[in-house]
Design brief:
- By secondary structure, the chain is α/β, with parallel strands linked by helices.
- Helices cover 42% and strands 24% of the residues.
- The strands form two sheets. A five-stranded parallel sheet has the order 1-5-4-2-3, with helices on both faces. A five-stranded mixed sheet has the order 6-7-8-9-10.
- Helix 5 links the parallel strand 4 and strand 5.
- It is elongated.
- The chain starts with 7 loop residues before the first strand and ends with a strand.
């Protein structure tokens, strides 16, 4: 996945140099597209992005093309984020950018400080999933960064798998928002190692069934084992709905048939 194609990306770092290189490319893509740019470095020391981005802003012909601000200036105040409030905040920023003649809004944000406790992490993970739906329909792009040394691999994985892409993480699948609240997208590979991670990710989607069904667009899924199908079954059963999994994997349909999962229906799709 190139930075130009990344809509909602996650980068977990222990190497500032690699992060800065990726962030610079991500922001340059936005600059070339005529977007307003924000950089939220958090408390991370040693970044060269702020100085470089300031120069980029001075070269622009548009007014206020670049902002560099602390996370408190980009995210709603409080120890635990309110997903709906934060989405409204970024919606307003995106709409203001359009009103000012920009083609959209793009942000690189280090949000390590917002996921330090389990309560913070759960709320922010729900936000990461939900803002992904907004970015499907609005000209907003985001690169969310996390300090892996401070948070640990498991915490990073919980957050990374809710993005469309996570180039610097070890997660093998991504669960990200579909176009409506009754749809989600699942891609990558799911085996025994991802069972608990998938369960946590599904819990944070807050899918709302229509006619008793939700849709899982799994056409980008390359592999799924029976344990992951059982995770889907438990999720759907607990919410008294049917998960309709659309995938090109014939093996998934055969497994579902053998397992006789009453709340999971696998439909083959190109």
């Amino acid at each position: 996945m190139t930075t130009a194609a990344a809509i909602h990306a996650c980068w977990s770092y222990d190497d500032h140099g690699a992060l800065d290189e990726y962030a610079r490319e991500f922001l340059l893509a936005g600059h070339a597209a005529g977007e307003r740019l924000w950089y939220v470095p958090g408390s991370r020391p040693g970044s060269t992005i702020a100085e470089w981005l300031g120069g980029l802003g001075r070269e622009s012909a548009r007014p206020h093309p670049v902002r560099i601000l602390p996370w408190q200036g980009a995210y709603a105040a409080g120890q635990v984020i309110d997903p709906a409030e934060q989405i409204a905040r970024y919606t307003a920023v995106t709409e203001a950018a359009l009103a000012d003649g920009f083609s959209g809004f793009r942000v690189v944000a280090d949000v390590t400080a917002l996921v330090g406790t389990p309560e913070q992490r759960d709320a922010f993970a729900r936000y990461e999933y939900a803002i992904g739906r907004y970015m499907r329909i609005a000209p907003m792009r985001a690169l969310c960064t996390y300090d892996r040394r401070e948070l640990g691999d498991r915490v990073v994985d919980e957050l990374a798998c809710l993005h469309r892409t996570s180039p610097a993480s070890a997660v093998t699948f991504h669960l990200h928002a579909g176009p409506t609240s009754d749809a989600t997208t699942l891609d990558g590979e799911l085996d025994m190692a991802g069972e608990d991670l998938l369960s946590d990710a599904l819990r944070r989607t807050d899918l709302e069934p229509v006619g008793g069904e939700v849709t899982v667009d799994a056409r980008g899924l390359r592999f799924i084992d029976h344990r992951s199908l059982i995770v889907l079954q438990r999720y759907a059963q607990a919410r008294r709905m049917t998960a309709v999994v659309r995938t090109g994997l014939g093996s998934a349909a055969r497994q579902a048939e053998l397992l006789e999962l009453p709340n999971v229906r696998v439909e083959l799709a190109a």
